[in-house]
Design brief:
The protein is built from no helices and 13 strands. The termini are far apart. By secondary structure, it is mainly β.
C-alpha cells in the first residue's frame, strides 16, 4: 500500500443522469382533466372560443399559432405543438389550455419561468391582449372574435 507521506486525491460524486419524465398519453375528446376547482374541459372540435398566439419578438418572431380546445404545449423539444428555438426556453416550457370558456397558461416547471404582462406565473387565466414571455420570445395572446 502507500506510505504515510503520500497525498490522496479527493473524489467528487456526481449525481446519476435521470431521463426526463414520460410524455402523458393523449386524452380522448370526452375527457375532463385537471383539479376539481379548475377542470380542463374538452368538447367537440371547433366548439367554443379560440385564440391566437403571435410571436412578436425573439428567435421565432412572426409565427402565429391557433389555440382551440386542445392544449398547446410550447418549448424547445421537437415534440411540442409550438417549438421555440432559443436556449432560454426549456424543453417543455409552458402549456396554453382551454378550461370551459377561458384560456389559461401553465408553466411546466421551466428553468427561466413564464411571464404574463411582465409578472412571473405558475398558472394564470389569459385575457385578450396579454403578453406572454417564454425564454427570449414575446408572445401576444388574442381571443378571436374579441
Amino acid at each position: 500500500m502507500g506510505s504515510e507521506g503520500e497525498a490522496h486525491e479527493s473524489t467528487t460524486l456526481m449525481p446519476a443522469w435521470q431521463p426526463p419524465p414520460p410524455t402523458p398519453p393523449a386524452i380522448p375528446d370526452t375527457a375532463v382533466i385537471g383539479g376539481p376547482t379548475q377542470p380542463l374541459i374538452r368538447t367537440r372540435p371547433g366548439a367554443g372560443p379560440q385564440a391566437e398566439l403571435t410571436i412578436e419578438s425573439g428567435p421565432d418572431a412572426g409565427h402565429t399559432y391557433r389555440a382551440t380546445e386542445t392544449a398547446l404545449r410550447m418549448g424547445r423539444s421537437p415534440d411540442n405543438d409550438l417549438i421555440l428555438r432559443d436556449p432560454a426556453t426549456s424543453g417543455h416550457h409552458a402549456r396554453v389550455e382551454r378550461r370551459g370558456e377561458q384560456f389559461w397558461i401553465v408553466d411546466l416547471g421551466s428553468t427561466n419561468g413564464t411571464l404574463v404582462n411582465g409578472e412571473p406565473v405558475q398558472e394564470k387565466e389569459l385575457n385578450h391582449d396579454d403578453r406572454i414571455t417564454v425564454g427570449q420570445n414575446a408572445v401576444h395572446f388574442s381571443l378571436l372574435g374579441s
